[in-house]
Design brief:
The structure holds two protein chains of two kinds. Chain A is mainly β. Chain A contains no helices and twelve strands. Classes of the chains: A mainly beta, B mainly beta. Chains A and B meet through β6 of A and β5 and β10 of B.
Chain lengths: 113, 113
């Protein structure tokens, strides 16, 4: 079935460092891909999305490119801030399961001042 | 601007007790869902509803009941709590099923002793 695999955390970086969180997927067809973010004490919220191959989603300085050839959707940011500390979830829109949106296991990111 | 409201935020139960987790949204969304979040497993869909009077099972429905008597409310019932149901529970909604941007509540931390 469809699935999402993302790098395990926690990831700890210094402020202004470059961030990459890896995400790969297995799916039939051409699913939409998403990154959701969960700040401490809050529910998840959509960070960015891409709906077809080679699309780049971007928001708040974060970017991710839909790579069909490598089935990947890695999250990047050029210069992280303390306020980016959160848990990040990669997800895909699945038409083969009741879930419709399948989430990865999440990656906890901590940024040191 | 309430969005999706979940109550309670924290709950401790003894094995065999029953309880209801409340979820309400004020955005007139047709689609509502319940997820559980467990370490290393991401979010898994428990039950969902595509409109008032209509509910269906997700990936992990056993031990949970739902009903949808109004568009706004989607309570989740644990009939006889078990330690395996210790988790963080999230309610989410969106305009219609298949729409990709889910709006999440802030979660309920449930411990079953």
């Amino acid at each position: 079935g469809d699935s999402v695999t993302q790098m395990e955390g926690p990831v700890t970086l210094s402020e202004e460092a470059f961030l990459t969180i890896n995400c790969t997927y297995t799916a039939t067809g051409y699913p939409s891909l998403f990154w959701y973010v969960q700040y401490p004490g809050e529910g998840l919220q959509l960070l960015l999305k891409a709906t077809k191959a080679d699309d780049k989603g971007s928001n708040k300085g974060f970017e991710a490119t839909y790579r069909k050839e490598t089935t990947s959707f890695h999250l990047e940011k050029g210069s992280v801030q303390v306020s980016d500390s959160a848990v990040y979830f990669c997800a895909l829109g699945s038409y083969s399961s009741a879930s419709k949106i399948i989430f990865g296991s999440g990656t906890r990111l901590s940024i040191r001042p | 601007n309430a969005g999706v409201t979940q109550t309670p935020k924290f709950q401790v139960l003894k094995t065999g007790q029953s309880m209801t987790l409340q979820c309400a949204q004020d955005m007139n969304h047709e689609y509502m869902s319940w997820y559980r979040q467990d370490p290393g497993m991401g979010l898994r869909l428990i039950h969902y509803s595509v409109g008032a009077g209509i509910t269906d099972q997700g990936e992990v429905p056993n031990g949970y009941n739902v009903s949808r008597s109004t568009t706004e409310d989607f309570p989740l019932r644990l009939l006889s709590a078990a330690p395996s149901q210790t988790s963080v529970y999230f309610c989410a909604s969106t305009v219609t099923q298949g729409t990709e941007k889910l709006f999440f509540g802030s979660g309920t931390q449930l411990s079953v002793l």
